[in-house]
Amino acid sequence: MTQIVMLSVDEKTLITDLDRAGYKKMGVLVRSATTLEDAIRILKNETIDIIVMNMDHAAVDAAEATLKIKRVKEWSSIPVVLTSVQSSSKIKQTASKCGADLFVEQPVPRDYFIEKLKSILDQETRTNQRVRGHVSLTFIWSGTSYSCDVADLSLTGLLASTDLPIPPGERLEMQINLGASSKMVRVEGEVVRQVQPSKQFNAGNNGGLGIRFMNFKADGRERIESWVARTSDTTNKLAYYL
Predict the structure, then answer these.
(1) Of the candidates 77, 106, 127, which is a domain's last residue?
(2) Dihedral, CA atoms, 95, 61, 120, 219, nearest 10 degrees?
C-alpha cells in the first residue's frame, strides 16, 4: 500500500508512538516538526504530500508559516491543513486568508481525519498536468538495469512503458532522460500501481507502471518543472499516480 507522507507541525508529545502506528496502519507516514525551522528542513530534504499544522501550538504561528510555505515555488502546491480546538469564525477566517487548503476542528476521529486528507490529495491530483514527449527512463530492479520509454510525465510522477511485474511500494533509483537535455534527472521513485491499457489515459497499448517521485537529486525537481511547463497539455489530467 502506497503511503501518504504527512508533515505534522505540532507539539511532539501529541504524536505518540501509538499515534504513529495507528496512522501507519491507515496508510499515513507521519513526519514531525515542532518549529517552522524543523518543518522547512524536512521540506527541503523529503517529499511531503500534505502538511498539517496545529493553530493552538504556541511555538509556531501556523497562519504565518502557511504563508511562508505557500510563497516557495516548489512547496506552493503542497496542501496545508490547519487544525484547532477552537471553532470561532475568526480562527476559520484566519485559516482561509493565509491560504490553507482546509480547516479541521479538533478533536475528530483519526479515520475521519485521514479521509479528509485523502480528499484534499484527490483534488490536488486532479489538477496536476501530465505531459507526453520523447522521454526515456533507466532504473535498477532486483540488481538488473532496465530501460523503457515514459508514456507521460507530471510534477509528481510518471507512467513507465514497461510490463515488468514490479509490485506497488517498491522503491526504484531512476534516471530520466528528457530528450533535448544531456543531463539525466536522478530521482528515487515508488511504484504506485500497475496501469492497465486504457484509452482514457492515452497510455498506449501496453499500459505500464505508475511511479510516484519521492526524492530528487541535485536540481532534478527544477528541471522536471521546467520541462513540464514547456510541454504541458491542459486537456489531460493526472489520475493514477497518487
Answers:
(1) 127
(2) 130
